[in-house]
Specification:
The complex is a heterodimer.
Chain A lengths: L1 H17 L2 H17 L10 H33 L3 H6 L4 H33 L7 H25 L5 H18 L18 H5 L7 H28 L3
Chain B lengths: L1 H26 L13 H26 L5 H4 L2 H13 L19 H9 L16 H10 L4 H13 L3 H14 L4 H13 L3 H17 L9 H20 L3 H14 L6 H13 L1
Classes of the chains: A mainly alpha, B mainly alpha.
Chain lengths: 242, 281
């Protein structure tokens, strides 16, 4: 089973290298970083918080965009091009197919995020800003990986109902809405809280590291949602006539 | 049956997104700048979006100033109050604004504890050496929304505070060009001239601002406490200058005007003191 899942995941990862999305977004990030570093406002320069804010915002956003775009098109693309039929004719169960797609897209998003995050941290260090503790950077890395896992699994589930464009749009809106207003929405206790995985403010304003129990709690929280979304995707996909 | 049940899921997500979007709109109401009249639909759409980004930049400035903005409604005008406090201190008067650093009341439930661990929830002002960090957000605010008067006023104030008077004047003049009928910007320009001891120019701008406040037309309708503070300070500063240059009757007129448009401001005491002082002299 693991081998079959790994083969499907590998196919998704190869797509990252083949397609131009990643390179385009990477170039955009580098432009944003260089542009933010050169900013001068009112004759003043050296705005450390503003630079960190810009860098980390785009690092987070671009990795979510890559994850969501890849996740949104996986299943519809396989169905449109009819490549799903020979795939499922092999001894690959529908669950393995969904799981393979999830792991593949998650890996794509994680690799992209790792590259983006390294550029962000590198640029902060190049500006001789050593104010943010390493552990806080590590917390930001771990929590964002959890967030990617949440969004990738959610997007795969939605891709079974929505077109790629609609799915991408709704998921990105959901990402922004929860990030900006998550804790202020009434009745929001019944909905997921992906905003808890975003510690951008903490990194920008150089605050304390995240306590271990909170990290553990959020890890379990993200894993639960990921399992829920993957299980729901399997349930829906299993019942679907192809 | 199963498929029907499953089909409810995306519909639910769409409904939730719609409800969320409506709720988001209501929470932004306090920050929304009143747009100019007479715009067509497209202008309104893009103008609204631009103003939204401008407001977002203002909120970021607030967030930086307080190192976190957990409860936006409560904090919305603190920055403006701080500016007023700074100006009033300059005149040797008290504004009533409490500069004390305060921590938000922490709730005991699990969600609040986790939220407090991953977000910045404490409210403490930036140290003087770090205060310049707020500056980029005022530039972003007015670049996206050139009619954001608050961005020009507070940004101009901070540029002066950071020892950049030429930049402050350039920034405020740009604000005046984009908003020729704004009393707040006229007042900010007057404050610039007052601090550079050019009292004639200060009076000229303050008189323009006074007239605009008394006319009470767009964009000078008082829609928040920040604007009320600005209006209050216009009259107080003008009266103060008149007193100092030996024109007490003009100062008295200014106090009366302020009392006329905002009786809640306790200025009659000042007017009485001025009258007594004059009769004594």
């Amino acid at each position: 089973m693991f081998r079959r899942v790994a083969v499907i995941a590998e196919g998704v990862v190869k797509e990252l290298v083949r397609r131009k999305d990643f390179y385009l977004i990477l170039a955009l990030l580098i432009i944003v970083v260089i542009y933010s570093a050169s900013f001068s406002f009112g004759g003043e320069k050296g705005f450390t918080r503003y630079f960190k804010e810009m860098g980390i915002t785009f690092t987070y956003l671009f990795s979510v965009i890559i994850g969501v775009i890849f996740a949104a098109r996986q299943i519809p693309q396989e169905m449109e091009s009819k490549t799903i039929y020979p795939l499922l004719a092999h001894p690959v169960s529908r669950f393995e197919f969904i799981l393979g797609k999830f792991f593949g897209v998650f890996l794509v998003a994680a690799v992209s995020f790792t590259v983006f995050y390294s550029i962000f941290i590198g640029s902060v260090l190049l500006r001789r800003d050593f104010s943010t503790p390493w552990l806080l950077f590590a917390d930001g890395y771990l929590l964002h990986l959890l967030l990617l896992s949440f969004f990738v699994s959610m997007t795969i589930l939605l891709s079974l109902f929505l077109s790629t464009a609609a799915n991408t749009m709704i998921t990105i809106i959901f990402y922004f809405a929860t990030n900006w207003f998550g804790a202020t929405l009434p009745g929001y206790i019944f909905l997921p809280h992906p905003e808890l995985f975003d510690i951008k403010e903490k990194i920008v304003h150089t605050q304390d590291v995240i306590p271990g129990w909170v990290l553990s709690y959020l890890t379990v929280y993200a894993v639960c949602y990921t399992i829920l979304f993957v299980a729901l995707s399997d349930l829906v996909f299993r019942k679907r006539d192809l | 049956m199963m498929r029907q049940r499953i089909a409810i899921f995306p519909v639910g997500v769409i409904l939730i997104s719609y409800v969320a979007a409506v709720l988001l709109g209501s929470s932004l109401k306090s920050y929304f700048i009143v747009q100019e009249q007479g715009q067509d639909v497209i202008q309104k759409m893009f103008g609204g979006l631009r103003a939204l980004v401008g407001d977002w930049a203002f909120i970021k400035g607030e967030e930086y100033y307080h190192r976190g903005l957990p409860f936006m409604k409560a904090m919305a005008y603190h920055h403006g109050e701080s500016v007023l406090a700074g100006r009033m201190e300059h005149l040797g008067e008290e504004s009533g604004h409490d500069h004390q650093h305060e921590d938000r009341e922490s709730k005991k439930d699990l969600f609040s504890k986790i939220y407090a661990s991953v977000k910045v929830t404490g409210d403490s002002h930036l140290t003087p050496s770090e205060e310049k960090e707020v500056l980029p957000w005022f530039y972003v605010e007015v670049r996206f929304n050139p009619h954001d008067i608050r961005g020009y006023s507070i940004g101009g104030y901070w540029l002066q505070e950071f020892g950049r008077p030429e930049e402050a004047l350039k920034f405020l003049k740009e604000g005046e060009r984009n908003n020729p009928n704004s009393a707040s910007i006229q007042m900010s320009l007057a404050w610039y001239y007052y601090t550079t001891r050019d009292f004639n120019s200060a009076i000229e701008y303050l008189e323009k601002a006074r007239k605009l406040w008394l006319d009470d037309k767009e964009p000078n309708h008082i829609i928040n406490e920040y604007m009320r503070s600005d209006r209050f300070f216009t009259f107080i500063l003008l009266a103060d200058i008149y007193k100092n240059i030996g024109q007490p009757m003009d100062a008295l007129d200014t106090y009366i005007d302020l009392y006329y448009i905002d009786p809640s401001q306790n200025v009659m005491e000042k007017a009485m003191q001025l009258t007594k002082h004059e009769s004594g002299a």
